[in-house]
Amino acid sequence: MSQFFQIHPDNPQKRLIDRAVQIIRDGGVIAYPTDSGYALGCHLGDKKAVERIKWLRALDDKHNFTLVCSDLSEIGTYAKVDNAVFRLLKAHTPGPYTFILQATTEVPRLLLHPKRRSIGVRVPDHQITRSLLDALGEPLMSVTLIPEDEALPMTDAEDIRDRYGAHLDLIIDGGACHLEPTSVIDLRELPPRVVREGRGDVAPFQE
Question: What residue stretches are annotated with the YrdC-like domain (predicted)?
Answer without folding.
Answer: 14-200
